[in-house]
Amino acid sequence: MDASYGRVVNVLVKPARRAPASPPPVVRGEPASPGALWRLWRWLDLRRDLILGPIAGAVVLAFLARPGDPVRVAVLTCCMLAAGATLARRVAPQAALLPLMRRVYPLLGPAIGLTGLALVALLTGEPRAGALDVLAALLASAFLAQPWGGLFGSAAPGSQRLAFIGSPAAGARLARALDAVGSSQYVLIGRVAGQDEPLLTGTAGPEVLGRLGQLGPLVVEHEIDLLVMGADAPRLTVFAEVADSCLHLPVRLVELSVLFEEAFGHVPTAEINASWFQCLADPRARVSTGPLKRAIDVVGASLALAVPLPLLPVLILLIRRDGGPGLFTQVRIGEGGRRFRLHKLRTMRVEADASAQWASPDDPRTTRIGAVLRRTHLDELPQLINVVRGEMSLVGPRPEQPVFVDRLERMLPFYQRRHLMRPGITGWAQIRCGYAGSDIGSAWKLCHDLYYAKHRSLGVDLLILCETFATLFFEREPVMHPESVALVLCDER
């Protein structure tokens, strides 16, 4: 039976007893199993942020700190930096997918650790270090935690070398998809061909590393971290070969749909079925973050509303100069399918409210002052009232109009599942996709809303808020369009 999509495949079944067969031909110089030194190097290489970075920061701070016990300072600093790196790793996959946050992420772990160290110093008086000393430790820790070119021989922080098991066409699509997003987290080394597959020269797609019967030696030779199994791969044969030759190796086997989540930050809705939603059937996870998330929403919305409050009357007067009311109210669908009234500063002409239409970045219905408000997101300020009232959250799926929701629920499988969450002012889909603008755009945003539903946490919410805030000052980078990944892979198979 085929395994359902959206889960890592844990190979636990012992393969059926087979007649002894002659071993595959051994390539000259190919190791039969990874040596202890190779295993140690790979283990250390994937944990630079947890080991090398903290050690570097601890040495620098122990050397620069005021007179005291340098060993004690080094041990304390190393422990705090390692703790900060551990916390930062929880949001590493999401940070790598955000254009602005992935530039800041290398400093996140050291910053968390040194902040904790500063609290310890405030309470105990040790270690005594100046601002420049702490800055030097932060930079040293961040530098050695990242695989700068030529320093440790890797391409990116936490990068994984993957091999694809499947057809040449599917391998070529995966290679194009990885190139489209410029992912630094995954390096496609090549493709593993089927045991009886004819190897044709000049075939498009990744380089053929070898055949499925040589999977174990190929993993060792090419230092593969991740085996990606396509939908057209011989599943039982793959499972049997992994059980025979890879269970003792530091390699992971995943479905192609799981790689989509990790590399592209969305759930390929064309590749999943209802069984995927078992990952959301955990009431304990919802209870553990619900009250704290609500408290952050209330406090954050109240503070964000209090700061620009004197500016609101001025903005309303400027809007009224274009004619019409300053505030705009519209019915939207919220959590559980409940309707509520959403408030915004009006950015479009009054006659534009006559019928429901998709909004776009350069909407011709936008007024002059409205264009400025939308570019700076100031038109969203009244929605903070919806957040305080509990109708919305700071982070969540964007609420849509009832007429759109009715149509999209008939067109798109699983669309109603996005109403399991409270809608938000900003969210994973908003910062990744921008405006929906069409039914296809809504399907694309649904892929991201489901990803957020699976991976949501307070840390991810903080990343989304920081990315949203950064777009006020930096130009937003273009994001991937749906036809470059999900729909192309689905339609071409």
Write a concise keyword list for the protein shown above:
493 residues; alpha/beta; five-stranded parallel sheet; disordered N terminus
Helical segment tally?
19
Strand order of the largest sheet: 3-2-1-4-5
Per DSSP E runs of 2 or more residues, the count of β-strands stands at 9
Rg, alpha carbons: 26 Å
CA-CA gap between termini: 20 Å
Mean pLDDT: 79
Query: How large is the share of residues in beta strands?
Result: 5-15%
> Structural class, judged by helices and strands?
alpha/beta
Give the low-pLDDT segments: 1-33, 148-157, 483-493
Shape: flat
Describe what you observe in this structure:
This protein is flat. It has a five-stranded parallel beta sheet, with helices on both faces. It has 19 helices and nine strands. α15 links the parallel β8 (393-395) and β9. The chain has three domains: 52-145; 158-264, NAD(P)-binding Rossmann-like Domain (Rossmann fold); 280-492, no CATH class. The chain is an alpha/beta fold.
Quickly describe the structure.
It is built from 19 helices and nine strands. It is α/β, with parallel strands linked by helices and 493 residues long. Strand 6 (327-333) and strand 7 (339-345) form a beta hairpin.
Ordered list of secondary-structure elements with their pairings:
Blueprint lengths: L35 H10 L6 H13 L5 H20 L2 H4 L5 H24 L6 H15 L14 E6 L2 H14 L4 E8 L14 E4 L3 H7 L4 E4 L5 H11 L6 E4 H9 L18 H24 L4 H11 L5 E7 L5 E7 L22 H9 L6 H6 L4 E3 L6 H10 L12 E3 L1 H6 L5 H17 L2 H13 L15 H7 L1
Parallel strand pairs: 1-2, 1-4, 2-3, 4-5, 8-9
Antiparallel strand pairs: 6-7
